[in-house]
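Colleagues,

For the teaching module next term, I've prepared a clean inverse folding example: a structure given as tokens, and then the sequence designed for it. I'd like students to try predicting residues themselves before seeing the answer, so please don't circulate the second half yet.
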């Protein structure tokens, strides 16, 4: 079983200019291997594609809210939005190894004090394609 082994190394990823899908698949894969994964600057993660279509789909999903006690709920925080995408890449996040892997992933907006001086993995580089940042949608 996956235990919280203390000798495992934590992977700290800077999400600035990282493509959301690629970042999510990498984080899910590392968490399934047993690594602790920390993603920083979630508001600067990018979503590639046509901005108008992305915004339309996002607002459409956010508008599909039924009665106040039932769903679907659409996330309005950038760190939770990135973690939600990662959740879709983890096999069965509700039980077993998927649940253990999902618990190993931490997402933050900005950089907390404990990770300021830590060595970070760069998530991406400057893109010259059409993209939008996660922070634009979660106002």
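(Answer key — instructors only)
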């Amino acid at each position: 079983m996956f235990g919280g082994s203390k000798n495992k190394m934590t992977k700290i990823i800077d999400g600035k200019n990282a493509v959301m899908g690629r970042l999510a698949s990498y984080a899910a894969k590392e968490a399934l291997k047993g690594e602790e994964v920390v993603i920083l600057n979630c508001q600067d993660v990018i979503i590639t594609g046509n901005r108008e279509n992305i915004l339309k789909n996002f607002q459409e999903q956010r508008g599909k809210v039924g009665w106040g006690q039932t769903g679907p709920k659409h996330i309005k925080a950038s760190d939770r939005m990135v973690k939600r995408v990662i959740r879709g890449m983890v096999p069965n996040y509700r039980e077993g190894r998927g649940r253990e892997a999902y618990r190993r992933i931490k997402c933050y907006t900005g950089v907390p004090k404990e990770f300021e001086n830590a060595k970070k993995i760069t998530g991406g580089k400057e893109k010259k394609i059409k993209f939008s940042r996660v922070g634009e949608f979660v106002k």
